Amino acid sequence: MNQSSLRETARMGLIAGSVILSVCMINIVESFNQRDIISEVFTLGQLLLFAGSLIVGYLVARNLSGERLPTKLIHGALAGALAGVPLFILILISRVWVNIREAFINVSPDLISIITLGQENAVVGSLELIGIFGLLGIVGALATIIADDIRSSVLLGLGWAIGLGTMSEILVNILRPRLSRDMMDRIFGGDGLQRNAFIVIFLLIAVISFWWNKDGRSRYKNIQSNMTAQQSRRANWVSVTLFFIFLMILPSLLGIYLSEIFNNVGLYILMGLGLNIAVGMAGLLDLGYVTNFAVGAYIMALLTTSSEYGVADPISFWIAIPICVIAAMFTGFFFALPVLKMRGDYLAIATLGFGEIIRILARSDALKEIIGGAQGILQIQQAKIGGFIGQTLTAVLTPINNFLARWELSVLSGEEGEIVFGNPPQLYYVILVGCLIMLLISRRLNNSRTGRRWMAIREDEDVAAAMGINTTNAKVIAFTLSAASGGLAGAIFAAKLGSIFPHSFQLLISVNVLSLIIVGGLGSIPGIVIGAFALIGVPDLLREFGEFRLLFYGIALIVMMLVRPEGLWPSEARQREFQSADGPPTAVPQGGD
Fold first, then answer.
1. Same domain, 155 and 133
2. Quick check: helix, strand or coil at residue 534?
3. Do residues 94 and 190 both lie within one domain?
4. pTM
5. Which of 76, 273, 354, 442 is the most buried (most CB within 10 A)?
6. Nearest-CA neighbor of 262 among 414, 426, 28?
7. How far apart are CA 241 and CA 252, in angstroms?
8. C-alpha distances out from residue 522 to 102, 477, 518, 565, 593, Å
9. Tens-place pLDDT, residues 238-284
């Protein structure tokens, strides 16, 4: 062992320890410790506490690729043990400094108990923690000698088991009407999975993943390659049909709470599909997208409310929807004109200003008599279908409604012959239709001449102009079409809540939409869906940890920029760009867009 490698190991171990100490000091470990993964055995807070030493052991051993296994194990143990040193120092300081919470409010007795593993003697407990960290560092080092397919299968199995354990409270509510009490007790404990259930899930997923990596994927590709064109089309139609049926029955599986989360994700998918036109396709950085969202919401409110701010004769939600979309498109067109010659950071600052202008106007007294000012607009009508269409749909959906009634759900509400999209499972279908429409439009634009013009402008606007592309028209069209989806999302949002207030249209909405596009993959439609679930759905499922939401956003963006800058599911064009920047181009998997 040379001194340089030992210094590097020590450096990485202390960095990992500093990260773990920071996570503890900002109260993440203590907050997450309230949620069990394995009931009464292992918590989410303990996972965050121990994961750092495991990861640093793996990283240290991976950097010693030319060394023998004993050397790797020693370095892994050293890095893991050093990761516990900052926590040990914190324990010593807390023993001497009795009033440490006056300066560090989160260093509570509960946190000290977690760090010291519940030992009465804090010093002994912290030394045990260092020992456990050292052992985990050895486990991380051992992971480097395992074959890639086995390691990926193990990680996938652990990921699924940990994820299901974390979400066990929600799963209990979904599965309770469908499973017997005895079966529920075998799977779930008071909070988290039972130990045996965790092991079974881990082994099942790991084995399936290993089989798929070794044999399943090749068999699937062979079957696909041997299909005729007609068989391939039939298989695609069957897949699409099954997926559509799944989407239609999903609210009955999710229940009210999860349907509400899916609705929030759906609204961000709608906005993401719109902003992706400007940012992902045309490369126009827009930080004021909340403007279109607000315009759609306020127009819907003014046209359908029965309060003093509405029109004399409120109109139907379905008639108001196209008006909201057109109003948002006009707003996008109007705001595009002053910024046509701006690029990059200057464009982002200008669009950010537009968003703030709309927010301030909505709160000000200047427009109070028209849009209610800070008091907002109440009594907004819900989406409903009546008349002949409502009666026909009622007759068709009644058998389905009777079936869903077993789980206290319903797709029908309102008077006889009228369908009201009021509760989350019902409103889900409105948002689903909006997402599907925008998805089809986005795919058509991706493969159109207009879409190729946008991509040329994104790559190099000067070169695109030299090739004869009218960049001014292309930018105006991008901003205008991008605004349409935001207006649609805002209109549905207003009908969903039944009231709107200016504080609902903060800059954070624009940041969230832009973040999900970056995390999912610029220009990628599947990436938008994945990004929305990752940044909107998961934090909503872990709502009790909402105070750390922006922190996780920042961490996710930093990690994505360092590890996978092209996004979780990049488009083919973006993937080729990154490959050409890193080295010679390689074959790109199909289905990126």
1. no
2. helix
3. no
4. 0.84
5. 76
6. 426
7. 18
8. 45, 19, 6, 10, 10
9. 888 888 888 888 887 787 888 889 999 999 999 999 999 999 888 88
Structure tokens at 403: 């079936």
Please indicate, yes or no, whether residues 323 and 432 belong to a single structural domain of this protein: yes
Contact 157, 209 (CB under 8 A): yes
What average pLDDT does the segment 196-201 reach? Answer: 93
Which residues does 426 contact at the CB level (< 8 Å), separation at least 6? 251, 410, 411, 413, 419, 420
Burial class for 190, CB neighbours closer than 10 Å (0-12, 13-18, 19+): exposed
> Average pLDDT in the 132-146 region?
92
- C-alpha to C-alpha distance for 275 and 416, rounded to whole angstroms: 40
How many helices (H) and strands (E) would you count in the chain? 27, 4
Of 463, 496, 529, the residue at which a domain comes to its end is 496
376 in the same domain as 311: yes
Helix (H) or strand (E) holding 579: helix 572-582
Residue 54 has pLDDT above 90, yes or no: yes
Query: Which pLDDT score is estimated for 590?
Result: 41
And the tokens for 584? 């010679």
Mean pLDDT across 548-563: 78
Average pLDDT score over residue span 162-181 = 84
First to last CA, the chain: 49
Q: Is 271 exposed, middle or buried (0-12, 13-18, 19+ CB in 10 A)?
A: buried
pLDDT tens sequence across 374-417: 888 888 888 877 666 666 666 666 666 666 565 555 555 444 55
Query: CA-to-CA distance for 536 and 264, rounded, in angstroms?
Result: 8
pLDDT at position 586 is: 43
Q: Let me know: does 161 contact 248? Beta carbons within 8 Å.
A: no
